[in-house]
Design a protein that fits this description.
- The complex is a heterodimer.
- Chain A is an all-alpha fold.
- Chain A is built from 15 helices and no strands.
- In chain A, helix 7 (145-159) crosses helix 8 and helix 9 (212-219) runs antiparallel to helix 10 (224-236).
- The longest helix of chain A is centred in the N-terminal third of the chain and has 36 residues, at 88-123.
- Chain A is globular, with a radius of gyration of 24 Å.
- Chain B has helices at 9-12, 21-25, 79-88, 136-147, 183-187, 197-200, 254-263, 274-281, 311-319, 323-329, 352-357, 363-374, 399-413, 426-435, 451-459, 473-484, 488-505, and strands at 41-43, 58-63, 93-95, 101-103, 106-111, 117-122, 161-166, 171-176, 216-222, 226-231, 245-250, 268-271, 286-301, 390-395, 418-423, 440-445, 513-521, 524-525, 552-553.
- Chain B starts with 8 loop residues before the first helix and ends with a strand.
- In chain B, the strands form four sheets. In chain B, strands 1, 2, 9, 10, 11, 12, 13, 14, 15, 16 and 17 form an eleven-stranded mixed beta sheet that branches.
- The chains are: A mainly alpha, B alpha+beta.
Chain lengths: 321, 555
Amino acid sequence: MARSLTRRVVPLAATLIAVSFLTFLLTSLLPGDPAVQILGPQGATPEAVARVRADLHLDDPLLVRYARWVGDVAQGDLGRSYRTGQEVRDAIGERLPVTLEIGGMAIVFALLGAIPLGMLSAYRAGGGVDRAVTGTSFALLAVPSFMMAIVLILVFAEQLGWAPATGWVRLSDDVGDNLRGAVLPALSISIGELAVYTRLLRSDTIATLQEDYISLARAKGMPTFWILLRHALRPSSFSLLTVVGLQIGAIMSGSVLIETLFALPGVGRLLVDSIYQRDLVMVQGIALVVAVSYVVVNFAVDIVYTYLDPRIRRGRAAARA
Amino acid sequence: MTPKPRSHRRLIALVAVLALAAAGCGGGDDDDTTAPESSGSSTTAEVSPQGDPVRGGSITVGIEAETNSWLPGSANFSNAGINVALAIYDPLFRRDADGVLHPYLAEKMAVSDDLTEWTVTLRSGVKFHDGTPLTAQAMKTTFDTYINATGSNLAGQVKDVQSVTAVDELTLLYTLAAPNAAFGDVLAGAVGWAFSPTAAASGPDAGSHPVGTGPFLFGDWQRDSKLVLTRNPDYWQEGLPYLDEIVFRPIPDEDTRISSLKTGDVDAVQSLRQSAIRQLQDLDGVDTYEFLGNNSGSAIFNTSVAPLDDVRVRRALAYALDQDQLIEVLGGTGITPAETQYFSEDSPYYSEAVAAAWPTGDAEEAAKLIDEYVNDPERSDGKAVGDPVTFTFDCPPDPSLIELSQLYQAFWGGIGVEVDLNQVEQATHVSEAIAGDYQAKCWRVGDQGDPYRTFTDAFTADSPLNFTRFSHPRIDEALDVLRTTADNEARKAAVEDISMVLAEEVPNTFTAATLSVLAVQENVKNVDGWTFPDGTKGEGVPGATTMWGHVWLAE
């Protein structure tokens, strides 16, 4: 275990360095001067721009700036936004819970729908239910999340009044209002995911159902429900798990469209605003946090695989032997 | 400029469009200030009866965008930010219903005959929210430390100020390096908002904890989510504010902002987008307060590069446009009138003569001018006689602007000009304009500020905001008049001179002036009825902003 950990930590560090350096490089290649953004067109006289650039060390060579940033990060200092005056760490800390809650809820909603639907349509592959589920999945896949969001707002906020269109309430302020505010954005994101998960689970389950041990279970007269849940689901969930893992990483960066539509104070909006305003320190900080969580989540998924399917553990042991 | 009676609403309701509003086209609209006598007009069309003032209650206001900071100098105040700022800070001056500057937080103002010494007397007994008294010294300190400082985005506005002196406890003297009749206009904006020097000195995060003298105290701020302001119990204006609390929510998407008003999640919204304004006008149980400003959609031309350095080309491009069709694409038909100068029809600086002289809607004349240029052996772009005129037109990637630029392309293509459309992201768009690194761009021009400031920024040789690189001796002469005289008739004549030069030389074209709206639930009252401490009626809701201390919630 220790060896497999070190085997993973080294590439992890390398990934983070690569990601942060590339972000640094890309943001510095962006046209548009941060100093002009700070001063505004009216104040952006050449002398004022030169002074601000000097204050922010923007004229130092790229590598020097990068090295300084890495040095600060190593001490836990992500810097301070020169657009808002906020600590980057605090700004991300404020936004992350919102993004995580919406993304997490979306994945849970998607799984709650995808598992029964995927199993059911695999069990009755080719039948009416399967065709209906398949058709609906493809239709949902074709609907972009912002479109879904607009429909949901129209129906559930404007017509039925079940949930607010906007108005985020922190979990710590009021749990009920918080959940009401989170439902529509989470649903908007989850519907596309639901379709993908259902398709994946269906095809893997169809393969699993051909296995001998399923036939044996059937021969023993076990109820269908039990066979699907106890014997077929676990071995059929690999592709699904991989995709969910990637998705958990992706939700860290938030959904810009959904956060904008529902006026949510999430990471996605912060990131996009920061790019527009050339708030490079903030962009850099967010990129780092997203990269770290991406890598960590996928590392965790890898480990979960081995517990999900004993064959992987044995396979490795056999290979070492 | 007079306030419009109700029946004028349709007329006024003409406006604006560039769906992009403030965010979209950069530059020029970061400024709430209004000039000694300029500005558009407000209407209280079809609003419910106002009734008597009521104390108490809380309202939620949906605004277009979040603001980066609340500290003048580092904050970028768009219309959304100004709305909030006017609840926290009191402005020294504002415009009254006749468009004339009038003291608000200031008691009075005196100007020396040579227009270089501006003496402002502050009201006595005013305290900042942190309990420290408002004094001339406090104003001087914040001016020197935050307004006229390195990295301040207001420094450009006060570059003529030689010194600020605290003459006595309540008297403040601004000494200018040269006469400037329009300086009062500067003091009506963020430069003249009083904020506590002690709070501002509290550290790099001071912009998150603003302390003003205004009707509301700054409370819990969750960026991009909500800002809670609570009643200032010690406010210097007896009886104000009426509300106990205001919550501002930035809701960037126009449709969800309107949905939130429909569902009652918010009590008021602001909008500068025509298609949204039309929807808001049609809602039941909602009152709309509109304001037609001078800000207009535009195509700006870089007059320092070929082929746009030739006036024949620029005039041809203006003649080729059918402004009504451009306005239709922007969704403004019937709400916003075509613009021909830097002032809308309601402005005292609007000139009929200029409107008549503005080149527009004449494809024949346009083709004639282009032919002249194309067949000129000395043509500025160095191409062979007979080769078509070509240039690149830049616009930010907003759907309505893309549609708009395609229409420009079609009109100009109609007279044989080949236009490449280029999408540039906003920050780049602005940087290129400042650097003069472009040929033509979609933009917004004009504002509520004094014409001296507007035209000095836009059309003097050494201004960083002279995006078109256009200047003219007649403009310089007229600006001199605007700078050195306070006489309204002389100033209007000077403005007309400038507008006429612009109509002849066409450094930019116009689409339509921008209509802005504050739409509120019927029980939100007195939205445009705010008054000065001496009872004079204010100018209403410029740029969809108001003085929130005067607003009440009917039972």
